[in-house]
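To the structural biology subgroup,

Please find below the input and predicted structure for Ypk2p, which we are adding to the shared reference set this quarter. The sequence is reproduced verbatim from the submission form. If anyone notices a discrepancy with their own records, reply to this email rather than editing the shared folder directly, so we keep one authoritative version.
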Amino acid sequence: MLEMTNLVKPNNELNNISSSDDNSYGPHEQYIYDNLEYGLCPECVKPNMWANWCKTCNSKRFQRNFHNWTSGNEHIDKFIQETQLNANNNFELLEWIPYDRLTNIEYLARGGFGVIYEAIWLDGRILSWNCEKQNWNRKDINYHKNDGKQGYWVILKSLSDSSKIDEDFLNEWKLHLQCQHNAWSNFTSLIPLFGITQNPVTKNYMVVMMYAFNGSLRNNLSILKYNPNDKFRNLWDISRQLNAIHSLNLVHGDFHDGNLLYLTENILLVSDFGLCRLVSQPNKNDEICGVIPYIAPEVLRGKPYTKAADIYSFGIIMWEMTSGIPAYCDVPHDLNICLNICRGDRPEIIKGTMPEYVELMERCWDNEPEKRPTAKELANTFDEWNKKYPMEEDEEKRIPVPDNEPEIKCHPKSCSTSRIFVSSVKLNEILSGKTDILDEDLDNCMVTVIEHQL
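Predicted structure (tokenized):
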């Protein structure tokens, strides 16, 4: 579970604080530094940047250890070293994790951007420096699994054909950590990354990240159906994370229910930055990637992906939290559904949904991007609603999903993983009346599920 209990919101004088004489800090870091938020380091007597975390001392410790390890790739080594030198807390650093320190490695799934495994990390992630023992305190046990085994359970994301990595290949993880830093500065978090390892057989590198034991939002929609106040906390969480991404002039690019992960019932985190990029950066090879029900109509028609496109996806997620089912899961995800979305078709409003909620949701999925709210506006709204409609945290008072709850049945031609969409030209020709839609077009508008790492 994330240790977020020490987060304290800064005052309004945040932006007026000057830099210290020996470090260059952002406003949030400077606030912590000047207000001794986490006390003083017992060794250098400088302010800690996080609970039991002295950035100055820890950077030197990591640097002294650089010669003791290597990934075998200079770009990965440099990347890991930079995170260790700049980490303001233990969630902003990566480690090189030898593959033999991982055990019980088991296949979980194939996603849009790689193969996913679970494993036990024998050492566990770094927590803080132990001044008395002069070594790192590590978290080595987090959960019991059903098979009775213990350990620090992690997720491994295999980077296909990654035996030779350059700077561009690491872009997803650099953006993830950049957004993570900004999220922490705004008192929230993305799914944390822990390090990189390499499969000695395939030679493919693997990113090691936090295991979200409660699964994705898609796996938990039924719970929201019976505990409707949960959605206000959850949407407050992800809107703040989205705002942290957007404030860096970045877009997530693949915002859907499978990329939102639960650590607990009240902590929902954004993951998977495979399509994250600067707002000004065009689509790679003019390709449109994603899960069809969450792709904004203007993007389907070939226009650039903007922050407003992420907001459209957010609106679809809002609907799912009222319906308890994935959007458009009962129809084929083909050219026909793309046409309907571009023509203004949206999921049917669930009877009894709060009118203010409906109004905001409909603004999010408006056909005109400029009419959609910003992530900051969403965060402010859900902050208020979360206070007004608090989540029930007493487990005995929460409503369990009934045993006879009908299983969600998805159409065999629906798809919940990211794919490459290649029919913007055809789509625009049909919408403009220049050509008719043919039956064979419905199945041929997609390429296969993405097998490569962008």
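Summary notes: The longest strand covers residues 102-111. The domain at 39-210 is CATH 3.30.200.20 (Phosphorylase Kinase; domain 1).

Regards,
Lab coordination
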